[in-house]
């Protein structure tokens, strides 16, 4: 079963616009990660935020975490056509060996 | 490119057959995890191997089994295939103490007819 839900399920924006994806989860976590997947192939790690952090930046990515609401958001600024992919949040609990993934957001960036 | 390689890339089997999927870890990584991703869903954790021992298991039946070899490569075996086993199977490697960040292979697309 999935840990939580991602919202929206699909997002279509124009190149240059910002894209925001949200993730909700159910149980307490040690950290939350975001991954990207192109065309149903392997996932690529984007960014990790720990439970005691509230915001983190990496290049054009900004992630926030609200543990009181059990939610996170991923913001991609100045989007490019190459950002078109599916984006997944994944949570790790005390058993760090296991990641629980959300259902993903499909992002389409139109040139 | 993550350095994690999986074979084969595609596979077609019939119900009741057995299948073996293979994974080579990224250099320096001694932990391997396997995930199943059904169409339109996020990956689901099957199990993890460290030092050739199963280190944790998700909610999958015993007909899903695995091996890890001394060179840290790994196999996923599925017996008595069912139609619902059709999915993308992803292997991910990590190094002990840094399990948080996973490096995924491109996956094996398994179709069960």
Notable features of this structure?
A: mainly beta, six-stranded mixed beta sheet, five-stranded antiparallel beta sheet, 0% helix, 56% strand, globular, B: 113 residues, mainly beta, seven-stranded mixed beta sheet, four-stranded antiparallel beta sheet, 11 strands
What does this structure look like?
- Chain A has about 110 residues and is mostly beta strands.
- Chain A contains no helices and 11 strands.
- Chain A has strands at about 5, 10-15, 20-25, 30-35, 45-50, 55-60, 60-65, 70-75, 85-90, 100, 105-110.
- In chain A, strands 2, 4, 5, 9, 10 and 11 form a 6-stranded mixed beta sheet that branches.
- Chain B is an all-beta fold and about 110 residues long.
- Chain B has strands at about 5, 10-15, 20-25, 30-35, 45-50, 55, 65-70, 75-80, 85-95, 105, 110.
- In chain B, the strands form 2 sheets. In chain B, strands 2, 4, 5, 6, 9, 10 and 11 form a 7-stranded mixed beta sheet that branches. A 4-stranded antiparallel beta sheet of chain B has the order 1-3-8-7, with no helix packed on it.
- In chain B, a hairpin with a 5-residue loop joins strand 7 (about 65-70) and strand 8.
- The interface between A and B is medium-sized, with 25 and 32 residues.
